[in-house]
Amino acid sequence: MTLQHRYDFLFLFDVKDGNPNGDPDAGNLPRIDAETGCGLVTDVCVKRKVRNFVELTQGGTEKNKIFIREKAILNNLIGEAHQQDQVRASEKGEKTKAAREWMCSNYFDIRTFGAVMSTGENAGQVRGPVQLTFSRSVDPIVVSEHTITRMAVATEGEAEKQKGDNRTMGRKFTVPYGLYIAHGFVSAHLAAQTGFNEEDLELLWESLGNMFEHDRSAARGEMTARGLYVFQHDSKLGNAPAHSLFERIKVSKQCEGPARNFTDYSVSIDDHLWPQGVTLNRKVG
């Protein structure tokens, strides 16, 4: 079923003793706002985890394949669209449109987040109905640096340099604790253009709520979805500005010292003079 409503959502997640999103331009340090000290996680990082969850749970089914995946050669995937009968049979001027529609119908991440598919055989560009902001921590974060030791070397040359001592040193960076907030938006009008439907929307909510459970690593520490608050509008255009809805979710620090657990915060909802035509659904939290 096609979307009949606009959605705005607030996603709350935390990290403990891990690096939620390293910056390759800064030696893989956790991303940080230099002026405020608040931690950042890019929209691309969150989308990657959604893609991974969909690929894991849907098993590459025909309509839920993933376009942006590890080691994929994108131009080859676009070329596959042009090999379909309905595309080959199209007039020259319609081939791009037909290929784009085929890609949207077969790849979850294209019809959800959009894609640029004009790098080879042209399948055009798709503006996705689901958009995410950078995630920002509620409070400034502290970056901890740890020296680690590897009791082995990679080559005989390294072993000779170490003169029998095979230990090599390295570093890893963690955030002791950080609670992050991301804002997201779902456009019913753009969903109609890509074929993103109610079933896809439910898969998106499921992915956001469970993606950290299947993305564990020592580097990322403990990451947990703490809240997913979905504002559903009665209309496709919306019944209230997104920012006014996000501001109703209040996250407050309860401890005097540095926060080290989610229980050090409280989350409340301001329901005073609730806007007409907007319903709040708590998917997580």
Automatic annotation (TrEMBL):
CDD domains on file: Cas7_I-C (cd09689)
Lineage: Bacteria, Pseudomonadati, Pseudomonadota, Gammaproteobacteria, Alteromonadales
Stated name of the protein: Type I-C CRISPR-associated protein Cas7/Csd2
InterPro entries (UniProt xref): Cas7_Csh2/Csh2, CRISPR-assoc_prot_Cas7/Csd2
UniProt-listed Pfam families: Cas_Cas7 (PF05107)
Domain of life: Bacteria
